[in-house]
Structures are given as C-alpha cells and as structure tokens.
Amino acid sequence: MFKEYAHYDATGLAELVARREVTPAELLEAAIARAEAVNPKINAIVRPLYERARARIGQPLVGPFAGVPFLIKDLLADLAGEPTSAASRYFENYRPARDYELVRRYQAAGLVIFGKTNTPELGVTPYTEPRLFGPARNPWNLERTPGGSSGGSAAAVAAGIVPMAHGNDGGGSIRIPASCCGLVGLKPTRGRIPTGPLRGDLWHGWVCDHVLTRSVRDCAAALDATAGPDAGAPHFAPPPPQPFLETMRRPPRKLRIAYTARPLVGTQMHAECAAGLEACVALLRDLGHEVTEAAPPVPREAFIVAFGRLVAGETAADLAAGAALVGHRVRAADIEPATRALVRIGRAVNAEEVGLALRTLAQITRDIGRWFESYDALLTPTLGRPPFPIGELQPRGLDALKIWLTNHLPIGGLAKSAREMLAFAARTFDWIPNTAVFNVTGQPSISLPLHWSADGLPVGMMLTARFAEDALLLQLAAQLEQARPWQDRRPPL
Questions:
Q1: Is the separation of the CB atoms in 312 and 345 below 8 Å?
Q2: Under CATH, to which class is 5-252 assigned?
C-alpha cells in the first residue's frame, strides 16, 4: 500500500508513476482503501466501479495523468454501460451506450475512473441531499453541507479519496462545493469544455464541466487535457496561445481588480465571508495589484425571475426527453416533490416568457461585459455564508405547503409569477449570491480556499475574469496559492 498517497496532488502522483516509483495498481488500491475507510462517513461515492478500474489498469495507460485514480459525478458524465442516475429514481437504471466526450478525454489523459459521486436530483439544488442516495457530508464537519451540486466530488477530494474529481456547474455547482470543502474550483469559459456527443447547449450554455482539485496546477493541467470543442459544439472558446499549465507558472502582470462585499443577487453577506474578502483584498494589494471597490450592474429581481423560469423549463424538458431513455413518461413517484413542482412550473412557462427571460439575461450579460472593460477581474466571496447544517435549506413550512399545492392543484401559472419565484428562491440566492451570474455571462470564474471561519470551516473567495481569459485567472490563482498556501490544511476526518 502506498501510504503517502494523500500527500500528493494529481500531477505529483502522475510524476511518481512516470518515474516508476509507484504503480497505477498501488495508487488505485490506496484510493479504494481510503474510500472504504471514509466514504461511510461522508457518502461521497454512490456507485463504486472498483472492478472496472482494476481491469482498466491492466491496459496501457498514457497521458498527463496516467495511472491517477479519479471519480466522476453521477450527472451528465456518461460512462458506457454504467448507470447515469442524476440521483433520480426516474433515471436509476438508465445505462448509456456511449461515453460522454469529456469522460473519453479523461480516460485518454490516463485517469482511472473507479466510481461515481453523489449529486442532488438532476443537479438543481446548491446542496447535495438526494432522497435516492441520502446526503453527502462535509469532511470538515460531518453535520454540514459540502455544497452542491458537485458535493460528492468535493467531499471525496477534501477527504483524500482522490486528489481531483469531476464536477459540473450550471449556477455555481463546482464553485459552491469548492468553497464549502476548501478546494480549487474553476468554472471555465463557456465552450471551453465539450458537452457531446449526445448533448449540445446545456441550460442555454450555462452548464460547464471541469474538476475540483487541491492545487491550481492540477486545475490548469486538467484544462489542457480536456479543453477544445467536439463535433457539432454550439459554443467555442478561443484556444489559449500557450498551454494553461505553462502560462500559470508565470506571475500575472499588475491587474486592475474590483471587489465587492455586496451580494450580486442575494440580500445578505455573513461576517466570515466579509472578513475573508477584506483579507484577500489586502493580500492582492501586497502582491502589487490595483484593487478598487466596485460591482457590476445586476438587477436582482429580474435576474432571479428569468433564471428561475428558464431552469424550471429546462428541468421539465430533461424529464420529457427522459422518456426516450428509460422507456416511460415520468410518474409522480419517480421524482422528489420539489423537482416535481419545478417541472410543473416549467410546463406552465410559455414560449413568450422563455424569449423574454433570454432577452433579460442577454441584456445583463451585455451590461456586465461593458463593466468588465474597466477591470481585469472581480473578487467576491463565493457564497453568502459558511457551510450550513445539512437539511437547513430543505423546504419547510410555507415553502413545503407551496410545493404540495403546486403538485396537487393546477396552479403552475401562479407559481411561475415573479412574486412567487422571488419568494421561493430568496433563501437559495442568499446562499449563492454571486455564482450564477457568471454562468449566464459565460465568463471564467474560480473559487479559492483563502479563508477559514472561526469554527474551522472553509470560506472560498471567488475571482472572475473576462470571457475566455481563463489563463489570466489561473495565473492570479497560482500567485495567491503561492502567497497563502492551503494544501497543508486537511479536515479532521
């Protein structure tokens, strides 16, 4: 058994394999042993694929991560022949015939997939508490959320099962769990990572895949290994002039960085998040950057209503399309009550409202794009508060009653109203006040573990750059990592 396994990032493990100081089999068995020891506590891995992985390491492994153990999220990341459930009873037995293009690229990079990770049903909540699998737990405090929707992947990396795991992000779902679990989480520029072969524009281009890591260099190297369009891609991000990993190793030029403690679409900011922001502002100034207090224009209510209606519509469409995959239309018992209510709202949203919502978000994107002409990056807290107790955001009281009424009465038209959308989404957007905006704009955005609360919980800081400037963002992240290292911080699991 390779006892030093948890002390290395993915790049470091790959270097050991390349120098033949350790074998892929030793790494895999170390990862499995760690999973068996801690997964019962954190519920991060919901579908072990140990034997498949053991067969894989019997084949030649090449690529920048040859022999490194890896986990993929049980959402979108199809692995041919294995279920992709999206944490839903409706898709529980769906077995895709083809690999997701990104999964194919992971395997071409030499990664050894040995399991799938926990996610909320269909990935629609920013916490990971599906009824199908039960909640994932945060290694820093088992009573707290690891975030979502890539909560299982984040918990697995933070707990030392793997140094790097797959996630996807449609409203913050990589950055949210990165903040909760003390990790690096990049949402790349729209079109940077492929979404084929079966899927095209996911949630109007908002959804991006990438990884959760402990180190910035792993984040950059994984981007080099997987970036670039596939056949029929609806979006295309301009390729960098040099590999991301190479660029990341050089310090950035002096940057103009804006910062704000004002939540972009929330209503409050926890004192720990504000304290982390102040410390990061001071650090950036010490590093020679020009840092100014300023915020991009985001009309909160218009954003939430447009975003919410479109998410509801896409969720309804996902389940309607699912009939061709699972052989029958969705039934009430197949999905959770909150998901069912979202679907009923989505069915009530009409084409005119979809068009207006898209126009609203397009105008917001234009306004933010013009604002970024004056700044190289924006710094905010990733979230509105540190990780909350598991179950705290589950619908209760009036919210639970509204869900029941939506599911049992023909009131989808009322539920989709601006007033009801704002009321129902308020607690969610107080939790994730800054992430979803940059899914809509398509800009690269990264959460970094730069602060811990007084009670020892990670509190991420988020940096966002202009469209396609992923390399600049990684340069800045690497500079911060060097100035304030975090890799020696490990949860008391």
A1: yes
A2: alpha beta
